[in-house]
Amino acid sequence: MSSIIKVEKLSKTFESKERKKGQRRKLKTVQALKDVSFEIGENEIFGLLGPNGAGKTTLIKCLTTLLLPSSGKAWVNGYSVLDEEDSVRASIGCMLMGDRGLYWKLTGRENLDYFGALYHVPKAVRRDRIDKLADLLHVKDFIDRTVETYSSGQKMLVAFAKSLINDAPILILDEPTVTLDVPTARELRTIVKELNESGKAILYTTHLMHEAEELCNRVAIMDHGEIIALGTPSELKTSLALDDTLDLEGVFPAKAVEAVRALGGVTRIAMKSTNGGRTSLSIISRSGGTILPQIIEALMHNGATIEQLRPKTATLEDVFIAKTGRTLDVDTRQIVVQRGEPGGGP
Ligand SMILES: Nc1ncnc2c1ncn2[C@@H]1O[C@H](COP(=O)(O)OP(=O)(O)OP(=O)(O)O)[C@@H](O)[C@H]1O
Ligand SMILES: [Mg+2]
C-alpha cells in the first residue's frame, strides 16, 4: 500500500483551567491523543470511529495543521504537518466544525468563491467548479442566498462543497452527515464514494458505526485518545470471533431444538413462547461460519415449521462493545470547550 497519510506516535495534551463555584481555579490536563499511529493508502476511504470525546477532531486538527501535536510526527501527501504547513494545506480539502467554517453574511456562492480564491484557484475555474458542485450537491436553489438564511442541513452541504473547491487529492471530513436528514446523508455518502472512485483519498470521522461500515475500506476505532482496533470492517469483526444471532419464529419441537444445539459452532439457544403456540428462538453462533444452512436443515428434518427468519450479524458497534464494555453513545468528553459562536466566520 502506498500511503498518502502517515501518522507516527502522535500525542496531544490540552491544559485548561477548571472553574467550579466557590473553589480556586485548578489546572486540568486532558490527553486527547495518546501515541496514535496509522497509515492511509492513496485509494482508501479510511474511517475514524469513536464516541464523543474519543479524540477524532483533535487528530484531524493536527493533520490539517490547525493544532500542533505535543509529540509525534505526521505526513500528509508526503509533507510534514510540523514544518511544511503550506504544502499540507494545499494537499487537502477539509470539512471541520461543519457550518462554522462559513461566513454567514455571504451567500453560499460567495463563500465558495472566496475560499477558492484563498486556494489560488483561477477565477474562471472557480466559476465553473462552483456550478458543477452546485449541481452535484443539489444546492442550486439556495446557493445565492446568504448562509444565515440556510437550514442546518443546507449549511452542511455548502460546507461540504467548500471542501471540494480546491479539488485536492485528499479529502478530510469530520462528521459531515451530523445534521443531515437520512436521505441527504445517504446521498452525501454516495458522493464520497464516487469522489474516492475518481481518485481522492478520504479520511472520514463518524460516531455512527453503520456509516463507517458502509463507507470505509478500513476503520480505526478510537477511544480515550487511543486506537483500540484497526482493520477492514470484516477483519475487525472476525478477529474478535464475535457471535452472530439468528432469530426465528415458528413451531419448534424439542428434538429440533436439540438437533440445533448439537451442531458445532452453536454457542447458545434462547427460547421464548409466544401467543398461539408459536415460539421465538434465538440461536447464537460463531460469526464468519456457514452454519445457517445447517441450522435450517436440522430444524426442518426434525419437524419444525419456520415462519420468520432474521439473521443478525455482528456490527462494528459490537466490536466497540467487546473492546470497551460500552456502547458508542457514551459521551467520554472530559471538558466541554466553548468555542466561538457561529456567525463570526472561520
Ligand atoms: N481546546 C481544548 N482544551 C481542552 N480540552 C480539549 C480541547 N479540545 C478538545 N479537548 C478534549 O479532548 C478530548 C478529545 O476531544 P475531540 O474533540 O478530539 O473528540 P471527538 O472524538 O472529536 O468527539 P466528538 O464526537 O464529540 O466530536 C475531549 O476530552 C475534549 O474535551
Ligand atoms: Mg469531533
Structure description:
The longest helix is centred in the middle third of the chain and has 16 residues, at 182-197. The protein has 346 residues and is of the alpha/beta class. It contains eleven helices and 14 strands. The two termini are 35 Å apart. Helix 9 packs antiparallel against helix 10 (292-300). The strands form three sheets. A six-stranded mixed beta sheet has the order 6-7-8-3-9-10, with helices on both faces. Strands 2-1-4-5 form a four-stranded antiparallel beta sheet, covered by helices on one side. Strands 12-13-11-14 form a four-stranded antiparallel beta sheet, covered by helices on one side. It is globular and about 75 Å long. The chain folds into two domains: 3-238, P-loop containing nucleotide triphosphate hydrolases (Rossmann fold, 3-Layer(aba) Sandwich), CATH 3.40.50.300; 244-313, Alpha-Beta Plaits (2-Layer Sandwich), CATH 3.30.70. Bound molecules: adenosine-5'-triphosphate and magnesium ion (MG). The site of adenosine-5'-triphosphate has 17 residues, from strand 1, strand 2 and helix 1.
